[in-house]
């Protein structure tokens, strides 16, 4: 039976910037990948100076939705499910009554549970609870909905939180220094303790095979309104990224402290 991986993301573009190469890696091996995006991204702004259109709010949402589909194609997703909430904005005040943060938790969890009941994934990937460097209320809500969702399920996939360790920040920062380009990773070097500590990592997915890294960058580029060509995401070339740090990192929910690291999301330790 085909293995299935389901990811839960807050906004269009999060699926590209968080764990995108992992999805590209697994879909290249025949794994079915399913994306759940909780909000429409409508509270964002155009961040690419090359995009000069003056979008109406409705048009902006439509453009971001099309960008999401293009990104998902690049990563090899078989399906994109939209939970249908409005983006709550960085301060949590956008989106009106349909904002993700104002939706009843059980209602949002039930929407996610229906997708999971249909898809029956072996692996679910979402966000962790350490948001000290990621305070977006929709990201925090996505974690709450995913956590709630687990209680509603009649089967138990392995659940992972996306991580980004201090070790990875150090390696990527050093690669930028060595190549003489400005480093977008400097902030992570002084991150507070928590999910950024190396000992929380349970699973390292090697994303150096094939073109997983290129596909992650292509997915990012699909978000034309959000990702300028001069973005820090492209500071290093795909090969430099592979050489500097060959993995994307995860913390398996329920793992024992300092559990031995494994290299496959579908292989939980015995
Ligand atoms: Zn987001």
TrEMBL record:
One Gene Ontology term of the molecular function aspect: hydrolase activity, acting on carbon-nitrogen (but not peptide) bonds, in linear amides
Keyword Zinc set for record: yes
Example GO biological process: glycoside metabolic process
Signal peptide bounds: none
Pfam families linked: PIG-L (PF02585)
Keywords: Zinc
Keyword RNA-binding: no
The name this protein goes by in its record: LmbE protein
Source species: Streptomyces lincolnensis
């Amino acid at each position: 039976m085909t293995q299935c991986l389901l990811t839960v993301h807050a906004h269009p573009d999060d699926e590209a910037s968080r764990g995108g190469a992992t999805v590209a890696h697994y879909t290249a091996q025949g794994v079915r990948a399913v994306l759940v995006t909780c909000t429409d991204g409508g509270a964002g702004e155009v961040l690419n100076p090359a995009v000069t259109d003056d979008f109406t709010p409705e048009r902006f949402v439509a453009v971001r939705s099309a960008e999401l589909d293009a990104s998902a194609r690049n990563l090899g997703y078989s399906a994109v499910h939209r939970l249908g909430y409005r983006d709550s904005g960085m301060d949590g005040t956008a989106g009106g009554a349909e904002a993700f943060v104002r939706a009843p938790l059980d209602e949002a969890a039930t929407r996610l549970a229906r997708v999971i009941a249909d898809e029956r994934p072996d692996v679910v990937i979402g966000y962790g609870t350490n948001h000290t460097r990621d305070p977006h209320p929709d990201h925090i809500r996505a974690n709450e909905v995913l956590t709630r969702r687990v209680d509603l399920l009649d089967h138990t996939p392995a659940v992972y939180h996306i991580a980004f360790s201090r070790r990875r920040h150090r390696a990527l920062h050093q690669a930028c220094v060595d190549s003489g380009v400005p480093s977008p990773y400097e902030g992570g070097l002084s991150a507070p303790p928590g999910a950024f500590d190396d000992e929380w990592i349970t699973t390292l997915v090697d994303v150096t095979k094939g073109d997983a890294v290129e596909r992650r960058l292509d997915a990012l580029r699909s978000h034309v309104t959000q990702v300028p060509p001069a973005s820090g995401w492209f500071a290093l070339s795909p090969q430099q990224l592979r050489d500097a740090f060959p993995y994307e990192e995860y913390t398996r929910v329920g793992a024992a402290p300092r559990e031995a690291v494994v290299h496959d999301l579908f292989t939980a330790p015995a």
